[in-house]
Amino acid sequence: MTKGDRDQGKNERDAASKAVLDNMARLKALRLAREAAEPPRAVTAKKVRAKAKSPDTKAPDLSEWLASQQNGGRRT
């Protein structure tokens, strides 16, 4: 590989990299312009779990949980 080939390869990579960066900058400018033109979106409330545990509910002891698993037909 000669020095000219390396320089040409580097120039091609640099040109491809610059093209990608220019395209990313163009797309970002378009996105920002679109977001600035549209009205602000309403903030949506987070979905609430159907069965939310109350903070004072205590989890069962491990021995109780294992017994319930065995009674339910699960092998533990």
Instruction: Classify the oligomer.
Output: single chain
SSE series: HH
> Helix amount, in percent?
55-70%
Q: Largest sheet, described in full?
A: none
Helix segment tally? 2
Coarse structural class = mainly alpha
Query: Whole-number radius of gyration?
Result: 30 Å
The total beta strand count reads 0
The first-to-last residue Cα distance is: 66 Å
Strand percentage: under 5%
| Global shape | elongated
Runs in which pLDDT lies below 50 for 5 or more consecutive residues are none
The averaged pLDDT comes out at 84
Descriptive notes:
The protein is an all-alpha fold and 76 residues long. 59% of the residues lie in helices and 0% in strands. It has a domain at 1-38. The longest helix has 35 residues, at 3-37. The chain is elongated and about 75 Å long. It starts with a helix and ends in a 5-residue tail after the last helix.
